[in-house]
Amino acid sequence: MAFSFLLPLLFFPFIFLLYQLYYRLRFRLPPGPRPWPVVGNLYDIKPVRFRCFAEWAQSYGPIISVWFGSTLNVIVSNSELAKEVLKDKDQQLADRHRSRSAAKFSRDGKDLIWADYGPHYVKVRKFCTVELFSPKRLEGLRPIREDEVSAMVESIYGDCTAPDNMGKSLLVRKYLGAVAFNNITRLAFGKRFVNSEGIMDKQGQEFKAIVSNGVKIGASLSMAEHIPWLRWMFPLDEEAFAKHSARRDRLTREIMEEHTVAREKSGGAKQHFFDALLTLKDKYDLSEDTIIGLLWDMITAGMDTTAISVEWAMAELIKNPRVQQKAQEELDRVIGHERVMTEADFSNLPYLQSVAKEALRLHPPTPLMLPHRANAKVKISGYDIPKGSNVHVNVWAVARDPDVWKNPLEFRPERFFEEDVDMKGHDFRLLPFGAGRRVCPGAQLGINLVTSMIGHLLHHFNWAPPNGVSAEEIDMGENPGMVTYMKTPLEAVPTPRLPANLYNRVAVNM
Prior knowledge:
The protein is 51% helix and 7% strand.
């Protein structure tokens, strides 16, 4: 009886060792840490994975093999190899690895983020580039972005000037998260779920609950995703995923119906993404699954990343008061103290743009690019990458490579005056939005919102560490995860620097 119980425990490691031997004899794989039977390198990987992989690259070289259970993952950590992955061998590496949860959420890749490269991906990608994120649509939606940023300024001003809060620190993430949430829901759904008193309506509460539940049930499968032999111990909760999908679809269809009725009454469509999807679905042959998938792609990709990027930027600006002062001097010179900044001012604010770019260089919100899956055997840097392997670009490590960046750990926006570096996928030293066939189609929208938020925060306020805390004591560690929040949420003391009438929200209804 005991032997029959132990037999599977002995059998699986044996099969894994044979599998490893087969790979090593057939392929010339990149070097890397020695994997353990069954689990591979899973127990060797430190929680903040991109730092762990960068450390391993110091020992094994800029391309390494890491085994997640029985799945080979290849991580590249310099700009030359990033170019090879994302440009030279892009077509063979354009598929997407989908975990069981990602497959369920995306209806097996019927959205954009989790779709394999093929006719569906090309069609949806074209729709996003030509229609959803076109310069005309982004400009048409600019009043929403500026409304939400001005609401953030008003909220910070009200809190920091309240008698009980004078000189006290505020939790910066609270205000950035509100902007990100309200902005993305208004752009996507054409609805502001939070009223002027800060009270969220029922649809907004349902929306937040759906997002939270999706994270919860998606994370519950993490170990079994990498070890197929263990999936019988961690079966997919089909009922939980079905309930989640039905709940998400019910809310989306409810808002869809509201848009349809409003459009019939007004006789025309608005600029919101939802209206674009509904009015152009026949032209692009978009199924309901794809429409819903695209909307939730935009929400998951755009909500956390904006707040993360601005929080890191503000931490760096507080740690580097010289940069903060220089950016404010530019804002005062160009904007003055009699009006507020708009996105139309960006072209006259090159230092502000460089501040945003430098923050995205040092702290990309997705430091490990979502994995690209090899759809055929391919060679990178002379090594074999077998079909089905996952390839990751360590964007964080690439942007801190001392071979291509002078003093890479220094927060110095002036570096972009010395050399113009594109960050929308054309220069492989700086890849916060990816590159190649899978570059983020909403990159310009993200850049505009991040730049606007930083600009308003600096124009309206001086920022200092909490009383009794020096700038050097600000914790610049990262939280583990696919997106990288600050480990310790940033607290800071804002001091108003403009006339009181410039702190009012400029509300728009669209």
